[in-house]
TrEMBL record:
Keywords: 4Fe-4S, Cell membrane, Electron transport, Iron, Iron-sulfur, Membrane, Metal-binding, Repeat, Translocase, Transport. Part of a membrane-bound complex that couples electron transfer with translocation of ions across the membrane. This is Ion-translocating oxidoreductase complex subunit C. It comes from Maledivibacter halophilus. [4Fe-4S] cluster 1 binds at C366, C369, C372, C415.
């Protein structure tokens, strides 16, 4: 099969060279962790512990408050010092602050759950739910919800996203090289949950070593196909990945399950494999720490709740003055106002930019060149949605299908006038969704 792709998209510089060949290192143990009870799309968790309690590694400390939610577990053993509102990557949230005892004592629940052959699909889904597994690509959508489609949506295909199309990030690349068997195992587990017979693992062709590594791990799996994707951003976005692999188009306002497909990240699959084989919930993840503002870029296996500063210090600290710290990639990631915030399940990258890198050019008037329309992978007209948003005309922005925006940032990247297209469209989406919630309540 030739390289697969989609219409639109852009080609930002990769900036992956500093870490793409660096093996994953296990980060040093944090002395204190701040674990938010909201690390996922959906309802925050209810705390299960109080100040003074002793907790163990893998112990559930936050219970999911609704179906669209995911439990939270302790990443260290030690004593609960506080349960309070604290600053996180997404704003203030209720957090459990734990002082580690350095012993890493495992909770009694952290035991092997069996294997795919001996477990039913429903049992596997429950393991995924109880392990607090969410999308590891950055969206942090609860995985058990994705694996619970309504009866009218018959799923026949699962696609794993191994594109890692965001510049700078190499966490998934290293995972595919170092633990490809976990990815295949996790995919097989999800296929059993949904009773599907076709699985794809899509990997961009700028990672030929990863393609070969995963192909080798899946060579005896007749129902799994490893496909090469043309290197282009945002190749890893759900709708674009579905079209590239299956040529199915998700309708406007629709979800992947509308065309019989579920999409997950390769990191999510590996985490599922780990939860089944060892019983360990999602308490750690691979994170790429890079950028000119950090001395020694690395791919680190970090524990949830570790502060950004502590992680950056393990990479030699800052290299000169800091212009900006971003959680995630430069296209879709979120800039942070300080380095005291904790890493969460969605912390795929910590980018440290120098002041020169972080300085944004001054926007000019739109010249109606149409480049943003030409490259938009969601077939939108970003210039108009942005203009209506900037003028507080959110109802009109909605008529231009603002909610279909996947927030990839391609429009902002390509705009010769450096308009704040993505930022203003995000505002419009937030206002539209807030209005809908108010009307339905």
């Amino acid at each position: 099969m030739g390289l697969l792709s989609f219409r639109g998209g852009v080609h930002p510089p990769h900036f992956k060279e500093p870490t793409s060949r660096l093996k994953i290192e296990k980060a040093s143990e944090p002395q204190t962790v701040t674990i938010p009870l909201s690390q996922h799309i959906g309802a925050p968790c209810e705390p299960l512990v109080k100040v003074g309690d002793t907790v163990k590694v893998g112990q559930k400390i936050g219970e999911a408050a609704s179906f669209v939610s995911a439990p939270v577990h302790s990443s260290v053993s030690g004593k609960v010092k506080a349960v309070k509102q604290s600053l996180t990557a997404g704003g203030e949230a209720l957090c459990v602050i734990i002082e580690s005892d350095g012993l890493n004592t495992l909770h009694e629940s952290v035991v092997s759950k069996g294997d795919i052959e001996s477990l039913s699909g429903e049992e596997i889904k429950n393991i995924i739910k109880e392990a607090g597994i969410v999308g590891m690509g950055g969206a942090a959508f609860p995985t058990h919800v994705k694996l619970s489609p309504p009866p009218q949506n018959k799923i026949d295909t699962i696609i794993l996203n191994g594109a890692e199309c965001e510049p700078y990030l190499t966490a998934d690349h290293r995972l595919m090289l170092e633990s490809p068997e976990k990815i295949v195992y996790g995919l097989k587990a999800m296929m059993k949950v949904l009773d599907v017979k076709k699985g794809y693992i899509g990997i961009e062709d700028n990672k030929p070593d990863a393609i070969e590594s995963v192909k080798e791990a899946a060579k005896n799996e007749s129902t799994i196909e490893v496909v090469g994707l043309r290197t282009k951003y945002p190749q890893g976005a759900e709708k674009q990945l579905i079209y590239a692999c299956t040529k199915r188009e998700v309708p406007s306002g629709g979800l992947p399950m509308a065309v019989g497909v579920v999409v997950n990240n390769v990191g999510t699959a590996a985490t599922i494999a780990n939860a089944i084989k060892t019983g360990m919930p999602l308490i750690e993840r691979i994170c790429t720490v890079t950028g000119k503002g950090v001395k020694n870029p690395k791919n680190l296996l970090i524990k949830v709740g570790t502060s950004f500063k502590e992680i950056i210090d393990q990479c030699g600290g800052y290299s000169g003055n800091v212009g900006k710290i971003i959680m995630g990639g430069p296209m879709m990631g979120l800039a942070q106002h300080n380095d005291g915030i904790p890493a969460v399940k969605a912390t795929s990258g910590i980018l440290v930019f120098t002041p020169e890198e972080a300085t944004l050019p001054k926007p000019n008037n739109c010249i109606k060149c149409g480049k943003c329309v030409e490259i938009c992978p969601a077939f939108l007209q970003p210039l108009y949605i942005s203009a209506y948003s900037l003028n507080n005309m959110y109802e009109t922005a909605e008529k231009y299908n603002a909610l279909d925006c996947i927030e990839c940032g391609s429009c902002s990247f390509i705009c010769p006038s450096k308009r704040p297209l993505l930022q203003s469209i995000r505002v419009a989406k937030r206002e539209i969704i807030a209005k809908k919630r108010k009307q339905s309540s």
